[in-house]
Amino acid sequence: MIRLDGLTKYYGDIRAVHNLSFTVEKGEVFGLLGPNGAGKTTTIRMLTTLTKPTSGRAWVAGHDVVAEPLAVKRSIGIAPQHLNLDGELTARENLEFHAKLYHMPRHERGKRISELLGFVELEKRADDLVEGFSGGMKRRLLIARALMHRPRVLFLDEPTVGLDPVTRRKIWDLIRSLRSEGVTVLLTTHYIEEAEQLCDRVGIINEGQLIALDSPANLKRKLGNFAVEVYHEGRAERRFFPTREEALEYGAEHARCKACDFSVRETNLEDVFIELTGRRFE
Asked: Are strands 76-79 and 153-157 parallel, antiparallel or unpaired?
């Protein structure tokens, strides 16, 4: 559903994205991870036709993003990081306006709006002004709006940023439901647990280049299933091992001095991120 072939973007002499090539399959939830300034937003802007690539090509739902921008726009839904709903309209009116922009027939609009408000659990607030909604309610309405015209591909830019844990998990449930319905989802996130819980695969980019691509489980397995952290004089040394037994043996051997301590835990996706980029997950 998404294919990149050598996608590259320069802004003057600044290289934002370099030679990106990967695919995203139908019904897959794909996470795009990377430090701030790595090129994630630029990549999404190219895939959603908002920015033209300097070189390379990309296709979304079978349509070339440069040669067929209108066909791409008809095939995608976008829930941006920044809340851009109209606060002076009700939830229903926001969806109605979006439907009109996509020329949805009148007889389809009402049914689809009711269906989506139920899907995001906002049916009881359908006729309330959006300016009175909480951040979590606005996020859910953004997803409903992005789905209004039945897109085949959904782009979610940090869909749960700033939300409390309970609301964040409600958004996760919505995304899982979309996967079960065959919608392809590409998301960016700054929450490591979110990427591990939701994504079938993740692509990690750094300085505009793809440096890792696999399922979260496989990426962790390649690094080592268990992490040992040995603490000494305020510093921590981290090593990775395939088995807990090897990790415990290493930790015990290197923490014999009275001033040392160690811990053993399962490897997580943040460990992979740090090892590959040299930076912590934001």
From this structure: parallel
Q: Are 65 and 76 in contact (CB under 8 A)?
A: no
Beta bridge pairs of residue 225: none
The pTM of this model reads 0.90
Fold of 2-87+148-215: Rossmann fold (3.40.50)
Which residue matches tokens 């305020």?
A: 234
CA 131 to chain centre: 26
Classify strands 226-232 and 260-266 as parallel, antiparallel or unpaired.
Answer: antiparallel
Helices (H), 91-153: 91-101, 106-119, 135-147
**Structural domain boundaries in the chain:** 2-87+148-215, 225-266
Locus of tokens 């952290």? 229
What tens-digit pLDDT sequence spans the chain (282 residues)?
Answer: 999 999 999 999 999 999 999 999 999 999 999 888 889 999 999 999 999 999 999 999 999 999 999 999 999 999 998 899 999 999 999 999 999 999 999 999 999 999 999 999 999 999 999 999 999 999 999 999 999 999 999 999 989 988 889 888 999 999 999 999 999 999 998 888 899 999 999 999 999 999 999 999 999 999 999 999 888 776 778 899 999 999 999 888 876 665 578 889 999 999 998 898 876 655
Of residues 180, 181, 161, 183, the one with CA closest to residue 171: 161
